Amino acid sequence: MIGNLPDLPPPLVEEAVRRALLEDLGRAGDITTAATIPPDATAEAVIAARKPGVIAGLALAASAFRQIDSAIRFEPALSDGTRVEPGAVAARISGPARGILSAERVALNFLCHLSGVATATRRYADAIAHTHARITCTRKTTPGLRAFEKYAVRCGGGSNHRFGLDDAVLIKDNHIAVAGGVAQAIARAKSYVGHLVKIEVEADDLDQLREALGAGADVILLDNMSPKMLAEAVRITAGAAILEASGGITIENIAAVAETGVDYISSGAITHSAPALDLGLDIRA
After folding, report:
1. At 1, is the pLDDT very low, low, confident or very high (cuts 50, 70, 90)?
2. 187-223 burial, b for 16+ CB within 10 Å, e for fewer?
């Protein structure tokens, strides 16, 4: 455990990195490095930030070097969740040069992408730090990388929404349409799931909010509501359910949304549209 961050399960890390390395090495391995670098050559390198941001994914970077060559030494210079400025060293690497060069891209792909997610999340979290609201992620993640992207959201100061279809009920507009209404959908969900499973329902307007409250929803997702409407929803709810604002959230409007008094603000952009943080591996002669 790093601070309040959960440890990434080692088997999950190892398997994801292994797949990425196999994809990169292909059928013949790193022919460029094999052709140009003597087998006994050694090297020292650092991974350093070229832009300001928040670091996430050091365990995956370390695994890439370790799986290529166990003789490579990977030493983190800081922890995931750390803010960095240009020039800050995130890790030091030393050992067989061939292995360092062959693992470089996979290590940086994970580290740059996840650090980008953490950095984007941090910007949103900072923008609403003066309120009690928290930024949370969604299921709009890169296939195969959800656990890591959600971990990166935590590194950036955000919180996690459900991880999949199996750990919470989220009744959305299409479920409501087929089920025949908000109350009907909630009643069926309550009769189906166990007492430990939370039930969230989407509300497009204040009438649906009132119906969801009457049916006993644990969490209500206020979809694409204006700040004025969100504030009224908070007044009506009066703490009877957790309120989550969603839809059209940007860095420009998130503070206004948070100031309405909602508990959570969900954003798909912090995972699916976060630009990679510019980090580079530099060989030290």
Report:
1. very low
2. eebbeeeeeeeebbbbbbeeebbebbbebebbbbbbb
105 is catalytic: yes
Average pLDDT, the chain: 96
Is the same domain home to 155 and 265? yes
User: Is 85 an annotated catalytic residue?
Assistant: no
How much of the chain exceeds pLDDT 90, in percent?
A: 96
Confirm whether 116 is domain-assigned. yes
Of 30, 149, 223, 244, which is the active-site residue?
A: 223
Domain region containing 236? 128-272
pLDDT digits (tens, 9 = 90+) for 80-100: 999 999 999 999 999 999 999
Are both 73 and 179 inside the same structural domain?
no
Annotated catalytic, 223?
yes
Q: What is the CATH number of the domain that holds 56?
A: 3.90.1170.20
Give the active site residue among 123, 140, 162, 190. Answer: 140
Q: How far apart are CA 48 and CA 70, in angstroms?
A: 22
Total domain count for the chain?
A: 2
Is 202 one of the catalytic residues? yes
| Terminal Cα-to-Cα distance of the chain (whole angstroms) | 35
Query: Which one is catalytic: 7, 15, 75, 172?
Result: 172
> Which token pair is 155?
């590194």
Same-domain status, 23 and 40: yes
Residue with token string 């050091």: 58
Same domain, 84 and 154: no
Marked catalytic residue, from 66, 73, 105, 210: 105
Domain assignment present for residue 3? The answer is no
Please identify which of the residues 80, 202, 211, 263 carries the catalytic annotation: 202
Residue 285 is predicted with a pLDDT of: 65
φ/ψ bin of 239: left (φ > 0), alpha (ψ from -120 to 50), beta (otherwise): left
